[in-house]
Amino acid sequence: MMSDFAGARPEGAPPELTDLQAPEVPAVTPSLRGPSMTPRQYIFFYSPDEWEHFIREWATALGTDYVQIKRLGGSNDRGADVAGFKTDMQFEGPWDCYQGKHYSEALKPSDAFPEMLKVFTSVIDGHYVLPDCYAFFAPKGCGPTLNRLLSRPTELRNWFLEQLDKGDSLASEIPEDLRDNVARLAKTADFALFRSVELEDALETHRGTPYHVGRFGSPVPPRPGHDSPPDEVGAHETRYVAQLIEVYAEKEPAESFTAENVSSHGKFGGHYRRQRESFYSAEALRLYARDSVPPGTFEALQTDVYSGVIEVAETSHSSGMDRLTSVLTASGQLDLSAHELISVSRIEDRKGICHHLANEDRLTWVKERS
What we know:
Blueprint: H1 39-44, H2 48-59, E1 68-71, E2 82-85, E3 95-100, H3 109-124, E4 133-137, H4 144-151, H5 153-165, H6 176-188, E5 194-197, H7 199-206, H8 212-216, H9 238-251, H10 269-292, H11 297-314, H12 320-331, H13 347-359
Parallel strand pairs: 3-4, 4-5
Antiparallel strand pairs: 1-2, 2-3
Helix pairs in contact: 2-7, 3-6, 5-6, 9-13, 10-13, 11-12, 12-13
């Protein structure tokens, strides 16, 4: 019987063997977690509360000497979602105000007027002094009309006073004496204080905060190099150094080891210098993490290193040196791939974290003999 398939092998003929063609490489490698989104797209789905948290994070990177940044958003925030205080006087001293508006469209003058009115009435009622800066902060920014007004402070003042006089405006709902006081204050206020923040500029600034990586899943920034340990032992490293001296003294009890002479010791000097290099490498990682990734990231790595080596440390060892060597070796074999910092960490960092733990007496090399 003839096959229905075109080009079928004749009956009785030997099979023909051919190499299968390799499948084409897809242009885009699929992600098991779905397509990635840009920070701008993530922000589109934020709730108003999350938007205010983002603004507060952004404000920490402005370079302004704020003594405190507070998120105050809520039903009674009096027009101040996030406040940057420049002195301990807080609302009674110089401060900046950031007003978040998580709207699906660009802000219009009708969106801005109620907030500006709220600022002036709050100042008159004594809730705070007029801020040095009042910035509108919206994912879609300000529309062309509002942008033009914000770019021309004198025109903005005139427009605000016109809205204040309108019988059908929001101002008609407040008492006449308060409205008159608002007008007097507005006529003397510097309307250059009212500004807007563009989202692209805000994202660029936010990249300089330790919150950016955790919020948007971005790669961690490059890690800079670090200096070698100073010759003199610092106050922040005395305990782990003392523990190392105990290790050497146990091996050579006839000798007198101190922080000043151990570095030049013929037998242990090199070992001691390597341990300090490791400690300072981990210290550099800690400082990098403080400035580059969310708070607690380095501490989580430190906790997992501790969990991975503590059983080794608690096992019976012939000497403190044997315990120390076993712990340092175990730290290099730990699976820490789940940690954000692992892409910029080194083996020396793991050893250094062990010395951080010894510095806190969470690890002890020389055990008291019973």
